[in-house]
Design goal:
By secondary structure, this protein is mainly alpha-helical. It is built from 15 helices and no strands.
């Protein structure tokens, strides 16, 4: 898929917003700027919609062309995209407890198997816990290709739409039921995080919204083009839907927010993503300087930013005569430097190695195919 400035902008907003939210680890931005960081957790939901759209488009377009689904190649590419930088940061967390933003860390194998979001004891082990969202993404990567292969052979457009509505309603019912049960029994743990906010089956709305957009772009191109022609209206609609969702999330752990807030928020972000794909739309042609780099490095920044915040807060700031908002340029610079190092020294070389190894693996198959043709 051609790189779109609008999607880069949304991804860069998402990563900056998440990092601002996590600034609570070092005292936050202060009461005057709480409005800026309070809902920063929603940046993860932007990532979910983008992932559903981009991965869904890639796989569905392959199948729509009648090409065989190469699961080995897909998982190979995803593994090299995710694992090198993740392994480096996980190794730092395991080997150097003093660098952790919180003392407690779940067992390393839960990170390695991407089961952290299902098994975490959040009350005691909060270090590196933001990788819960990476677990959700990995589960999506694992299951969706198989599900998409099955669905494209057995479902009509009407049935697909019904299935999506059913999944949204099932999510609402599941979150409502768990919330009502835990609120009544009050288990002695952080049940909101462990039972509602982190588990994969509770957080499918954003990924589902992205997949719906992907299906529209691949199988209903005429409708997709007509929608893109209304990109400005879609943008304002997305902002309005997001604002309505945030009114529910003023009580972030409340029943209304967790019952219907997630699908509403995902719908709003989905409209923004759709608007951003229109090349002539305001978002689609909004090429903000630096947004493309932030988007490209967002994964490395996401993995490492809590480590950097903690290090700056504990060891660097006590040496500097700075207070209040004056310290945040120091945090920002340090986060960018470490994130850039991880991105350019680990993440990108890993992708280059993936491509070289993949080419070596494909060469014998091409030669065998050529010999078979000649024979």
């Amino acid at each position: 898929m051609t790189r779109l400035p609008g999607l880069d902008l949304l991804r860069s907003i998402a990563i900056v917003w998440v990092m601002l939210f996590h600034s609570f680890l070092v005292g936050g931005l202060g009461p005057g700027f709480a409005w800026l960081s309070r809902f920063g957790w929603a940046g993860v939901d932007i990532f979910f919609v983008l992932s559903g759209f981009l991965i869904g488009s890639q796989l569905l377009r392959t199948m729509q062309r009648g090409e065989p689904l190469d699961l080995r190649a897909f998982y190979w590419r995803r593994a090299w995209r995710i694992l090198p930088a993740f392994a480096v940061v996980l190794a730092v967390y395991v080997a150097f407890p003093v660098l952790r933003e919180e003392p407690g860390l779940q067992a390393w194998w839960q990170f390695a198997t991407f089961t952290l979001n299902l098994l975490i004891d959040y009350g005691r082990n909060q270090a590196f816990s933001h990788t819960w969202s990476l677990c959700v993404e990995e589960h999506f990567y694992l299951v969706f290709p198989l599900l998409a292969w099955w669905l494209t052979r057995r479902l009509s457009a009407t049935r697909f739409g019904g299935l999506c509505v059913g999944l949204v309603l099932l999510g609402i019912a599941l979150r409502t039921g768990v919330w009502l049960h835990d609120d009544a029994t009050q288990p002695p743990r952080n049940w909101y995080i462990e039972d509602i906010y982190y588990p994969t089956w509770m957080r499918l709305d954003g990924l589902l919204m992205g997949v719906v957009l992907a299906a529209l772009s691949v199988y209903r191109p005429a409708l997709w083009t007509r929608l893109q022609a209304r990109s400005t209206l879609l943008m304002f609609g997305g902002v309005a839907a997001g604002a309505l969702a945030f009114t529910l999330f003023r009580d972030r752990t409340g029943l209304a927010a967790n019952a219907v807030g997630w699908p509403l928020l995902s719908f709003g972000f989905g409209l923004l993503v759709l608007s951003a794909t229109a090349p002539r739309g305001w978002l689609g042609r909004c090429a903000v300087p630096g947004a493309d780099w932030l988007a490209a490095a967002s994964y490395s920044l996401y993995l490492s930013h809590k480590l950097v915040m903690h290090a700056v807060h504990e060891w660097l700031l006590p040496l500097l005569p700075l207070q209040g908002l004056a310290v945040f340029p120091i945090y920002a610079l340090a986060i960018l430097l470490v994130g850039a190092a991880l991105h350019h020294l680990v993440e990108r070389p890993g992708l280059h190695l993936r491509d070289r190894l993949g080419e070596r693996m494909r060469a014998p198959r091409r030669e065998a195919a050529a010999l078979g043709t000649q024979g």
